[in-house]
Amino acid sequence: MAHVGEPRASSRRTVEPVKLSELGEDRFLARVRERLPEPGPAVVLGLGDDTAVLDLPEAERTLVTTDVLVEGVHFLRRTLPPRFIGRKAVAVNASDIAAMGGRPVGVLMSLMTPVDSSVSELMELFDGLIEQASALGADLVGGNLCTSPGPMAVDVTIVGASRRGRVLERRGARAGDAIYVSGKLGASAEGLRLLNEGVALAASGSLIVPNALRSGPLPLAEQCLRAHMDPEPRLELGAFLCENEVATACIDLSDGLALDLHRLCRASGVGSRIEESALPIHPGVLAWEGLRKRPPLDVALAGGEDYELLFTVREEGRLERWRQEGNVPITRIGEVTDSGQGIRLATREGSERSLEPAGWDHFLPPSGHRGT
Question: Other CB atoms closer than 10 Å to residue 354's CB: what's the count?
């Protein structure tokens, strides 16, 4: 196993880790509170009481979203360091806030974990959660801690606020609107595949690559790993689309472009036509093509966990300022059509076919799990 940027081995003796069952709930939570930075102005009362108290401006609407990461379904502890579990738990929820054009304000996290869990690992998880929340302008304001007889589950709720009282919705797209997507597609799914092949990103940030894969493009491998392990919610783009009344409809890509496009079109009562040649497939998906069974198009359409924004626009000229000043690329991939035309994909060969709603479904899962 070859290591890129691996830190020097420590000469300190191995110490048996403290278990959660030895510390107890109150003393563990006291350690968490010691790690919290000073809260922002919206937090009247934060972690430590029966409920949090937030003071939001009267002109803003309150947004609330929740999501859970379950060990064995969304992640494996042997491949995802605890810090990244915490960071990702916040990021996937903040992506929903981004899709509504809002900003995250308060984060609540319920942790369900076995009593023999390592305290140091759990503190790393909380460090990642607090770190990500702070980076996104939010505070950890509450939650819960309980024992679990089974796998770990990290359940996060984010309270957000809309700017100027407006929100983006999935409904609102109309025939003739242009369809755009942010960033690149398929990187997260490729990162998951690389994890399964033995590539890893250590908590220190070093990239660990099996010798058999070292002939591949390591910078692209790291990009794909980070996309899967440490996604970046598109909050700035969502705010721009909402505040400037640019997007007519918006959704974040959590379960795959094909599936989430169907959801947006169903909510808006429209059809759509997207072009294969226009899809911004991540170069890492193309570079490692020979090592996987799925073609790049399938990875881009149904890989899932991209956490990019898919949105529709009526007046494309309003995007010019973002193209000049925004820090995330956006790509026009098609247009909205009448509902009777269905959801169509124009192929590179010049033909058209129906685009099925392929992607991640918790109750109709594809082979394997997200975290395996």
Answer: 8
